[in-house]
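Readers outside the structure-tokenisation community will struggle with the description of the input data as it stands. What matters is that the chain and its backbone geometry are given together, residue for residue. For illustration, here is how one protein appears when written out as sequence plus structure tokens:

…
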Amino acid sequence: MQTTSTNWLESLRRLTPADKAVLITVTAVKGSTPRGAGTRMLVTANTQYDTIGGGHLEWKAIASARLWLAETSADATPRHIDLSLGPSLGQCCGGALSLCLERVDCWSYQDLQHKLHDYQQEQARLPHLYLFGAGHVGTALVNILQYVPCRITWVDERDHLFPTELPDNIITEATDTPEAVISSADKDAYFLVMTHHHGLDLILSEHILRQPDVAWFGLIGSKTKRARFENRLQERGIGQHQRPNMVCPIGVSGISGKEPGVIAVAVAAQLLQLWAKRPTLSPIATLTRISDATL
């Protein structure tokens, strides 16, 4: 069996009509569970895409999916499994969850398009990070965040620095006018500036601080860089009430290493802390979260 970290939605889009596959969705959770409601994975006869939490729970879900795929006559009716995460599954989480299994190859073309649209809408509600800079730290950060439920717009004028292949949740912008990306950015987006030139950092900082409805803005650099930028931003008309919105230095406290990978881990942890404070946005998590009295 081949396991891949490829995004389930990306893989779903690539399926051909001849491909047999089962989409597994965590539809409800109670207590402690490996993943939350709305988590999905795609299973074919030989490969799984993404994960619903690993362990015996995932093995049982995959086994159920493959038994279904092996049946001679395909039934389009979704199947549901309720599981308690106790000794019977070799797990000690103590919670319970419900799974929904759907035969993707039984969907009509119209059904597939409607579902892809709905799934894309779910993805659009994930936190959106605008990352300026494709240098060592930016690349290391993307390597971490590609496995995190988020969207990233990665901006740099040096097109050759971008990897040739990236997950669907990461798009690249090779532009000589990165400030234009800021002006058209999503509302309540997150911004991270770490370009190869302090002059460009300053220009981007000014544009971000003038932008309304910014969820968070981080700038790579030291306390000295921050002090110099605050003086220059003041000269450019950025008021005293705006400048505190610039987070610099960045990264969670207690990590002092300056290696690109170390900085990337510290910043990724900081972003995860911020995103954890956002309300649950998945429709499944909102509508089907179950109480202690059920399941």
Observations:
- The mean pLDDT is 87.
- The longest strand covers residues 22-30.
- The domain at 128-276 is CATH 3.40.50.720 (Rossmann fold).
- The two ends are 31 Å apart (CA to CA).
